Description:
Elements: H1 2-9, H2 19-51, H3 54-80, H4 95-123, H5 132-159, H6 162-190, H7 198-226, H8 232-243, E1 250-258, E2 264-273, H9 278-296, E3 298-307, H10 312-328, E4 333-340, E5 346-354, H11 362-376, E6 380-388
Parallel strand pairs: 2-3, 5-6
Antiparallel strand pairs: 1-2, 4-5
Helix pairs in contact: 2-3, 2-5, 3-4, 3-6, 3-7, 4-6, 4-7, 5-6, 6-7, 8-9, 10-11
Amino acid sequence: MTNLLIRLFIKNREAVTCPSVRRAYGTMVSIVSMIVNILLFAAKFTVGTLAGSVSITADAVNNLSDAGSQIISFISFRISAKPADREHPFGHARIEYIASMIVSFFILLIGFELLRESIAKIVTPEPPERSWIAVAVLAGSILCKLWLGMFNKAVGGRIDSAVMKATAADCISDAISTGAVLLSTAVLLIFPNMSLNLDAYMGVIVAVLIMVAGIKILKEAKDSILGEAPSDEIVRQITDIVEHTEGALGIHDLTVHNYGPGHVIAALHVEVDGRADIFRTHDMIDNIEKKLRQECGIEATIHMDPIVTDDEAVTHLREQTAQAVKAVDERLRIHDFRFVKGTTHSNLIFDVVAPFELKMTDEAIQNKVSEQIKRLDPTYFTVLTVDRE
């Protein structure tokens, strides 16, 4: 069904990084999701109202909130497809993260209201009417929500949309909560003399599930807006391209900024032979940037770090320094090593890369590394910078 809809409504469907194609995908998914959720709301609200069931009515209202969320998603895709301008030089793609956050607020609000209503029903119980029609409607709703979740997940994965992935997670949680309502409705039909107000308690469970889903979506949107560490896949792609380029001797200080799907910017340092022809080295760096753009969709800015490769003494001292740094903590490593020899003392200039998990302060790392270097030669002085990653 998903592939059929894509073939029918999406032109140039393989060009998923093109803003107009992404907007077409977003429009299609939003409209389909709105139609399904409005139909589910109408069916469940009618059955829930007639049966006096707070859990079914709550589930119906949840579908209505989903339809509203799809309207927000639809608007966000229209905005995110706008090209970069003077005020927004990196484009508008991050609007999808803001839209995901708005969706999460709606979900949390609905969940809170349903929780309040369900608790009120527990305090002042009103037994609902029993109806096999309600069971049929709820079962159909579960199937629709599962399909809608897979639909959003498939398309969201294809175009790398945070909004669709968030919607897919919401659909799955909706199917689970509707399953809980279906279970309680069926139990009341099978055991008509049951005194426990199962409907109200199931309403509480539905409300909690809705709020948990909202918190999860909110956290993911928050992390995307604040900025996250690059994924292992992106780091591997960049590292592989650099390491397989002749003349590139190492990579460090990699920073990746994600401005939304299709808008990834990276900055990195590449170590090169200090003796090599500067024009050849510059051409090699340009080729790496071009390859990252074409193969990974990453706009990269690369800084060249020339290193000494033909001085055995400096090479040996670099290896000794690396071992001294690892003696402080096995996770530490060095780059940008330089050696400046003097008459009374010599300077070892380098950067130390430390993981964020290392609880030592930068000053403590500097002091301990300096102590280790002094053991190599008391006339060695360290000039080092600590990089966290």
